[in-house]
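User: Can you predict the 3D structure for this chain?
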Amino acid sequence: MLAKVGAADRYLRTASPFSRRDFQRVCGRIKAVPALKSFQLALLPGVIAGVISIFTSWLLMGVIFYRHQQQTPDTWRPENKSSFAFSAVIHFLACIVIATLFLLVGRIYGGVFGGGIERACAFAVLIWLAMAVPLALDAAVYIKLHPLVVLGQLFDWLTTSILACVLAAWWRDT
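Assistant: Here is the predicted structure, written as structure tokens:
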């Protein structure tokens, strides 16, 4: 009985399609996954863009378009420190994600988005058109928002995506 178990165990060890060396080689390649590498390259430019984006968001929505928010007071929740902090975190993380997507697409596929500030702006506008514009316009259909507040939100997210892509392109010379 023991001889059969030993033979089966020996068969399973030798019948494996991957050796230990293959496994180590595959695990070593995990470090070079393009998405992870793009995230590492985009982290610092994304952080810088995120900090700048917080201030541009304050300027656009908190100063320039704020008076239009007051024309629809029943739409808005009361403002407090935690709502400002949560909004800042959203902009901060969005810049890191947008910069990562730009470097991932630019580094792997190149082509239209692979290099230069102009192409970074094109990618930023494309991301903005694909994500922020539909969300803001769809919200404006169902939520009682002043049209200039919607315009302010659109400008806010356009500057956020442009900041993230341009800083990532400039920082990494793509």
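The chain has one domain: 33-172. The radius of gyration is 24 Å.
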